[in-house]
Amino acid sequence: MSSGFEEGHLLSDDGLIIEALDENGEAILLGQKAAKLLITNLYNTTIPLIRYEFTDQLTIYDRPAVCGSNFRAASLVDGRLDEHFIYAGKTRVHVHLFRHVLEQRLGILEYQVRQTPNGADVDLLIAGNYRVDTNEIKSLLEADLEKLGISNALVRVQIIESIKRTSAQKLKRFFPVQ
């Protein structure tokens, strides 16, 4: 929720336990930017969340909210832990580069992007009779990656019949190189 007095959020921590963690899952101090959060709701017995992971990156402030609220204050979300591909030379590419191109094309129902050493493999699930120009998508993504310093960027785009989901049947769109 917003307080209207400062940029950021108030955390409803009277009904939640909010744990701020670094990229390795270790607790961090207030005032440090969290790579992810674990949320446990205290009163919802219908759909309990126990240490549910959010990869939103934000800072939970180590000071009171400026509006006088008893809720803890936090910054706006800076991004998500899983929203960057890191290429050789430490070049960080936000996955919005891919999202921006793919979500503007009519007919693309879903997609998955797997980072490769110098680009990405992109799988597309297309609706019905739509035609999607995979060569255009490939060219746009390669050009965008090269603008960010990925030399000889190589993107493979293919249309597939179905999208793989996690064991919990969730869609995961981006897969960084491990």
If you had to describe this structure to a student in words, what would you say it looks like?
The chain is mainly β and 178 residues long. The chain folds into two domains: 9-77, no CATH class; 83-175, 2-Layer Sandwich (GMP Synthetase, Chain A, domain 3). The chain is 12% helix and 38% strand. It has two helices and 14 strands. The chain has helices at 96-102, 134-147, and strands at 9-11, 16-21, 33-34, 36-41, 52-54, 56-64, 72-74, 79-80, 84-87, 91-94, 108-116, 119-126, 154-159, 174-175. Strands 1, 3, 6, 7 and 8 form a five-stranded antiparallel beta sheet that branches. The chain has a four-stranded mixed beta sheet with strand order 13-12-11-14, covered by helices on one side. A hairpin with a 2-residue loop joins strand 11 (108-116) and strand 12. Helix 1 (96-102) runs antiparallel to helix 2. The chain is globular, with a radius of gyration of 20 Å. The model has no long low-confidence stretch (mean pLDDT 87).
Offer a quick outline of the entry.
With 178 residues, the protein is mainly beta. The chain is built from 2 helices and 14 strands, in the order ββββββββββαββαββ.
SSE class = mainly beta
Label the overall shape: globular
| Sequence of secondary-structure elements | EEEEEEEEEEHEEHEE
Number of separate domains: 2
Summed up, the helix count is 2
Could you say what the CATH topology of the largest domain is called? Answer: GMP Synthetase, Chain A, domain 3
Tell me the Rg in angstroms: 20 Å
Q: Please indicate the percent range of residues in DSSP E strands (runs of 2 or more).
A: 35-45%
Q: Cα distance, first to last residue?
A: 35 Å
Mean pLDDT across residues? 87
Name of the CATH class of the largest domain:
Alpha Beta
Q: What's the helical proportion of residues? A: 10-25%
In the CATH hierarchy, what is the architecture of the largest domain at level 2?
Answer: 2-Layer Sandwich
Number-wise, the strands total 14
